[in-house]
Amino acid sequence: MPTLLITGANRGLGLELARRYATDGWDVLACCRSPENARELNQLAAASGGKVSVHLLDVANNTQRQSLAAQFKGRPIDILFNNAGISGNWGTQSFGQCQSDEWLEVLRTNVIAPTLMMQDFAANVAMSDRKIIANMSSKMGSIADNTSGSSYVYRSSKAALNMVSMSAARDLARQGITVVALHPGWVRTDMGGPNGELSVEESVTALKRNLTNVTVADSGRFIDIDGSTIPW
Ligand code: NDP
């Protein structure tokens, strides 16, 4: 059975992705930064008959990430899904309000951590059948789509994630690895809030469909929830 490694699997989109891939029979390496508090994820793992395992990973923690990579050395990973992300405080993202410390924390989580995850787990992906790396981006990271300004912190982090996704797509092509940046839609999670356009279930159905359809020819694409390409 294929294997998914997903970060931020304890709630929101990550939890539903873990649940749905497990339902499809995949082995799911579900990572989160506080396994002891991940009640729903632990329930999912307990009911999965061994398909879902829970692993400690704060994506911004180098020691934890490297320890996990050592633990899974030699194990094929069909999809590495860099899902974990933070928005930062929306109240300090307008022009004149931005502060460096919080901004750096968002960049560490949303850009640097997924890049280091790709570095540390590319060998696992390369030895799998499907060879896919999915980076959870956002249309808010599209420069072309930015007509309303503001949101400097979150926008810049996802724009940078898009750029590292493209570099990785180029660099990993010779290993047959497909790297895509995905927009999940505006989703009703803790981050998306109650007014989002999509339920978690609707978003995950579309994300899974898009990932099922990707081939090496799609590497380096920024894919909208309907499967179309988002301009950078
Ligand atoms: P949630 O806020 O519901 O969940 C975020 C997840 O990321 C949580 O599991 C959280 O863990 C985890 N996380 C945050 N920081 C870290 C870290 N340092 N190490 C490990 N895990 C971490 O958000 P969503 O489910 O909505 O978002 C998932 C992804 O989708 C994000 O990358 C987000 O930017 C992106 N996205 C979401 C949209 C939406 O409308 N919801 C729109 C566009 C993109 P913990 O519980 O420990 O905090």
From TrEMBL:
<protein>
    <submittedName>
        <fullName>Short-chain dehydrogenase/reductase SDR</fullName>
    </submittedName>
</protein>
<dbReference type="GO" id="GO:0016616">
    <property type="term" value="F:oxidoreductase activity, acting on the CH-OH group of donors, NAD or NADP as acceptor"/>
</dbReference>
<dbReference type="InterPro" id="IPR036291">
    <property type="entry name" value="NAD(P)-bd_dom_sf"/>
</dbReference>
<dbReference type="InterPro" id="IPR052184">
    <property type="entry name" value="SDR_enzymes"/>
</dbReference>
<dbReference type="Pfam" id="PF00106">
    <property type="entry name" value="adh_short"/>
</dbReference>
<comment type="similarity">
    <text>Belongs to the short-chain dehydrogenases/reductases (SDR) family.</text>
</comment>
<dbReference type="InterPro" id="IPR002347">
    <property type="entry name" value="SDR_fam"/>
</dbReference>
